[in-house]
Specification:
The structure is a homotetramer of 143-residue chains. With 143 residues, the first copy, chain A, is of the alpha+beta class. Chain A has a single domain, classed as Thiol Ester Dehydrase, Chain A (Roll). Chain A is built from 3 helices and 6 strands. The model of chain A has no long low-confidence stretch (mean pLDDT 92). Chains in contact: A-B, A-C, A-D, B-C, B-D, C-D. Chains A and B meet through helix 3 and strand 3 of A and helix 3 and strand 5 of B. Strand 3 of chain A pairs antiparallel with strand 5 of chain B.
Amino acid sequence: MQAVMTEAELMAFMRRAFAQVAEEFRVERLTADGIVMRLKVDDRHLRPGGTVSGPSIFALADVAVYLAILARIGPVALAVTTNGTVDFLRKPAAGVDLLAEARLLKLGRVLAVGDVLIRSEGSDAPVARSNMTYSIPPRREQF
Amino acid sequence: MQAVMTEAELMAFMRRAFAQVAEEFRVERLTADGIVMRLKVDDRHLRPGGTVSGPSIFALADVAVYLAILARIGPVALAVTTNGTVDFLRKPAAGVDLLAEARLLKLGRVLAVGDVLIRSEGSDAPVARSNMTYSIPPRREQF
Amino acid sequence: MQAVMTEAELMAFMRRAFAQVAEEFRVERLTADGIVMRLKVDDRHLRPGGTVSGPSIFALADVAVYLAILARIGPVALAVTTNGTVDFLRKPAAGVDLLAEARLLKLGRVLAVGDVLIRSEGSDAPVARSNMTYSIPPRREQF
Amino acid sequence: MQAVMTEAELMAFMRRAFAQVAEEFRVERLTADGIVMRLKVDDRHLRPGGTVSGPSIFALADVAVYLAILARIGPVALAVTTNGTVDFLRKPAAGVDLLAEARLLKLGRVLAVGDVLIRSEGSDAPVARSNMTYSIPPRREQF
């Protein structure tokens, strides 16, 4: 599953296709089997007690697997999430970003599946674990 | 599982504890085994193509089960989501709110589990299905 | 989603396609949006303490959604489970069968999604909740 | 999370507590953060077409996380699965065992969470991905 897009191309795609949220995230790097994404945590992501909101963590896992897929199949804006699951494991560390390490476990003709570990930057213990399934549109729709 | 809070008390609690997002949601009504919640869909929830974003749907399911629990055990702000899953089934209808129908399947000493069907207002076919698990803090911490 | 197979046809299909396990299950009845299936609980399904094993409950949910789908699209042995989730809620009642009530939430061209509530016969409180996703083979492969 | 039981002690515990199924599984080795378990695939696990049944794969993931937990907290037969999820990714290779690599992501006072990758022996591509949550009984009940 060789990448066909660079980190910079993924960021440009995200700014074009998801202008509303693109600034919250950053592609850190493509990996052999996935991607590392950053959530630039600020007040809008926080809940009372200083924890990062569940939907923000879901969004981070979702975008990480999405871009890990696009990096391999090209900028197919029509791939859609069909299932997303998050286990919330620990409260994030205060005042630091979250880093999501996503790996693709399957990239099929119809479905792609990835899992994600999310950690506070500088910590080893995972804040959340997630798995995401995407439906891949038929290739002819890409042209 | 008799409710110990009214719809108005739940709304007041949400505005106090989650001021940032409370305006996006409305408690429609408590039901025998759960709650009906509304997501007041506006531009911030939308993605290109007019679909409601995955994190917005996750947030709606999460808050619905959370308030369904609180309605039965009282305003325990410390209950935390431990697992959340969403199956995305259909694109929502354009220009209408989403309604989430949550039911509590278990309300134990330690864990509570609910499931949720989300529909576009005025439609029967579900847009998403979700299940959420909450960890309930020990009762002594509530006082 | 009109049924195109009867309960008896589903049972006959199951005995033909899954001879090894067919005797453990019984189609109770087709419903408007799903099916009710029975697990004939015996020693092989039990664990120490008299609880029904997790894999037995998974199997019951899986077969219930599978047959609910086949009842609507015909005997397509090639439909495969792509995701299965079970929340275990309560210990089953001793010495009685389990009944699974499955409903189809989506029956698409490519994916079908159902959810399931499992109860001990004669009890209201659910023993388990499940959701299952199936990949539907392209229609041309069915002929 | 230092292990307090050896592979041999885990196998002995499994034979004692789960005599019915113990022979199907083998502890391959404890790892730094989990365990590797083998499912000795035979006819009882197979479905038409030669695939390993979903419940068998669920059982393998379940026992792997269970023993990964027990290895760290000692032989607490009362730990119970509260949630189990499996994504089925590929058909297993014919005629070989399955190996499950489980890692513990959280081992808390009340809940433990692990994830699992399952592969056919000798293959790199995963057959299934799973996550399992266990409820840990209060320590006082262990004595």
